[in-house]
Amino acid sequence: MTMNDDVFLEFGDPTSAVDVSHISDYLGVFTSHDGQYYVPPVSLKGLSDLTRAHPTQTTLPHFTTNMLLKHLEPNTLLNQRLIRQASIDFRTMGNAYIQFLRNRVGQVVGAKHVPAINVRKLTEGGYGWLNTDGTITKFKPGEIFHLADYETNQTIYGVPYWHGAIQSILLGEDVTLFPRRFFRNGAHMGNLFVTSGLSKEAGGKFEADLRKTKGVGNFRSSHIGLGKNMEAEKHVKVIPIGKLDGKSAEFIAFLNASKSAVLEAWRVRPELAGMMPTNTGGSGDLHKILIMNYEQEVVPYQQQWQEINEYLPVRHHLTFKVPDNREF
To answer: Long-range contacts for 280-288 (Cβ within 8 Å, ≥24 apart)?
Structure first.
């Protein structure tokens, strides 16, 4: 590499680990290609994948489910395990399904959770299970209870109320992903190397060493032997272009903005989600915050689930204990 040789090295750009940007598109509800069932308006797999794209989003379906189960009074039909699984589906995808098992006279004698990601509403009425080969296994009429998070554009499927925070979730993933890929890559456009007066052999070796800095063992040194009359400051220069600091104010600001938007979409206070408060005043009275969360969020969520009681005998009704102030 001599003074007349222009060589440019490109080390690539970071890419998203989870491609879920398409799930923000809302196309309405249409029938499948064979006309058997309605296609959900939002990708259910995409909504599920989002729980692995952002740490705050990962915990919130479980947190709100724990708040629901805290005061649950389970019975022989509706136990904690069933309600937990169905609630996580509901909070993640806006839909939950429970299959009723009936005896010969039509009485409900059992119930089990059916994963929402594979349940479809049939065009002829009723529900079906979408198999891996694209075929549908139909449930019997009246066998499926469907709890849907109401969505104003259609009434066939539910859409989770946090759907509007998708871009904030993806922002948090991108902000976390970029530094991670930066340090894993090892070779990046943080500095521009400028050399002049080197022999072609020395320049070629230096170029080869730079290319090897990517990947495992990327933290290494390279020796350049210059002639007696050559000054390192003039013939080899390092020009800083960009500097990444994982603790920089810009990254912290983006992460905090993403976390705040996600928590606001879920209507959960940061203190309840295990996050340190960002203000200097602290968290305030946590006991009062728990009571407020119970009255404004937990009770309405309990009432949503009690819609199932319309289809069950009184002895199997879903009920919750009303706590007193000491139980928070």
So the answer is: 287/325, 287/328
